[in-house]
Amino acid sequence: MSHESSRTTTDQRGRIRVTGFDTSAFEDRDERFDWQQEESTVSRSRWTRSWERFKRNRTALAGLAIIAVMLFVTIFARPIAVEGITIQPFSLAPFDPTNSNFGALNEAPSASHPFGTDWSGKDILSRVMYGGRYSLTIGVITVGIALSVGVPLGAIAGYYGGWVDEVIMRLVDILYAFPFLVLAIALISVLGQGFWNMITALVLVVWISYARLLRGEVLSVKENEYVTAAKALGARDRSIIFRHVVPNAMAPVIVQATLGIGTVVLNAAALGFLGLGLEPGSPEWGSMLSSGRDTLIQGYWWVTVFPGLAIFLFVLSINLVGDGVRDAVDPQGDSGGNAGVR
Amino acid sequence: MSLQRYLIKRLLVMIPVLFGVTVLTFSLTKMLPGSPVDFILQFQETTPGLREQLEAQYNLDEPVYIQYWLWLRDAMVLDFGDSIISDRSVTGAIVGRLPKTLLLGGAGFAIAVCIGIPLGVLSAVNNGNTIDEVSRIGALLGIATPNFWLGLMLMLVFSVQFGLFRVIPPSDVGVFHPSMLKFVILPAITLGTASSALIMRLTRSSMVEELNKDYVRTAKAKGLSERTVIVKHVLRNSMVSVVTVAAIQVAFIVNGSVVIEQVFSWPGVGRLLIDAITQRDFPVLQAIVLMIAVTIVFVNLIADLLYSWLDPRIRY
């Protein structure tokens, strides 16, 4: 038996002979095979590279700087206390934004009131500084929650397709038939006014654009070979979706979400202007404009100019940052602007 | 796919959407806190049997799905009942306001298109130089300005300081009367600004994309003038995507006019909507929201059909 004899010969030689592998050829192999992949000490992920591209964009950084200053001003405008414990004791605003001074009604800008006072003698500078808290938190929280609703639904719809996709996308289509503000107004009339009701209404309006955008991206990303490979390796659907598909489909959604903060702030101010936002009398930028409208005819321009400038400056900076984010994460993306404004 | 088959498919997709829109609009007012009967009874002396009579009038004694069906059946023939506040028929109230809103929206849309498209073309042709930079910065400013604030500022400058335009239009002057022009000009500019900025950006980006294509080089190589290449070839091709953008702008204009009508005390449908909400006049609210949503569904249909007619490659 030849097989038996060959094994005895290997045993006799005291070592395992690997057949079909010519060791001599292996020994005098080419120099090039000594090459080893150089391990970089710093792993540069896609997001690090994006951040580096973003850092080179000067207009985007200027936008970011303005937002940082506005954030600083609103945080330190008035002391912040959580359950009786003061966590932020500083007060940049010269007056209490809710305090009326009936000795100084509708005063023009002066040294003591740089932005003037409104119809009930409230200091407009203090109100503008403090009012940023409402607009900025509404913008960030709304977009955050809307992402956490829209991203999973969009990903599931795009990945599974079929009836799941039909159901989710028909719902999106139905909601898309209502213009942004009209739907928000209708929802607020049901929910009632107030901070969280306003956020709820805005989230219900905003999530659809992220779901629709992500679904479209997922449809093309899921055709990639690495997704097939992950499936072949037996990865669960959940981990394929959230570790392989979504991270590769997120770029346009991130751009849209950044610009979305501006859209939400703009529409929140519009709701405030229509008297449907927060509780009446809140120093919110939109509501301030609505009370300023009534005294505009009398020539009290300062009541409307400054809160509007604050909204304008914030939305402008968000747009600068958003355009920078687009160039950084999605260089081939379209530069058509904020298509999700509706 | 032929255009007819595409049309049929597109219409079939529309049915569940329209159904959903009616269900959503109907349930919105069902979710409103407080029954409308309670609301009416606040203003009237309660007599025995009045509550039952009112509930029967608004079909509130029926199960919800019957209520929906009865409402839908009437809505199909544009009968939304009577307004709770003014005793007028809802349809009459809306139709009375509609011409003013259409005038404002139409003027705003015209301004948006007349500024947005030429600026976008100009910017794309001058890609990278000063003209491009200036118009892109302009577009950015236009997008970032809150429309209601822009309206207030225009009012401040032109009406309060210079006294050029009267602010509130008289209700007895017809829409097509030439004197309406001076009332509509400020609100229309306010409404059109943000839209024109968006249209400009999209026109620019689709033009830039087209300008880099091979057929442009061919057209230039065979000796056509720059002007002919741009007007006859590039503009025509990039308009395909501008059409869809214009459709999106309809929703945007509706959005804007709700606020702008409030700023300029413009007696249109948008103000009727806000009044209906503050006065809890739910039949009016339902009717306006439904009317807007159905309009937008049809505008999107028209845009899709136009798009596939202009570019037959796109049929899905």
Describe this structure in words.
The complex is a heterodimer of chains A (342) and B (316). Chain A is elongated. Helices cover 64% and strands 2% of the residues of chain A. Chain A has a two-stranded antiparallel ribbon. By secondary structure, chain A is mainly α. Helix content of chain B is 76%, strand content 0%. Chain B contains 12 helices and no strands. Chain B has 316 residues and is mainly α. The mean pLDDT of chain B is 82. The longest helix of chain B is centred in the C-terminal third of the chain and has 38 residues, at 226-263. Chains A and B meet through helix 6, helix 7, helix 11, helix 12 and helix 13 of A and helix 1, helix 6, helix 7, helix 8 and helix 10 of B.
Q: Return residue spans of chain A where pLDDT drops below 50 for at least 5 consecutive residues.
A: 1-10, 334-342
Characterize the biggest β-sheet of chain B. Answer: none
Shape of chain B: flat
Number of continuous helical runs of chain B: 12
Q: Averaged pLDDT of chain B, please?
A: 82
End-to-end Cα distance of chain A, whole Å, is: 83 Å
Major sheet details of chain A: 2 strands, antiparallel
Average pLDDT over all residues of chain A: 79
Uncertain parts of chain B? none
Instruction: Give me the strand/helix succession of chain B.
Output: HHHHHHHHHHHH
Total E-strand runs of chain A: 2
Q: Supply Rg of chain B.
A: 24 Å
Q: How far apart, in Å, are the first and last alpha carbons of chain B?
A: 8 Å
Structural class, from helix and strand content of chain A?
mainly alpha
Share in helix of chain B: over 70%
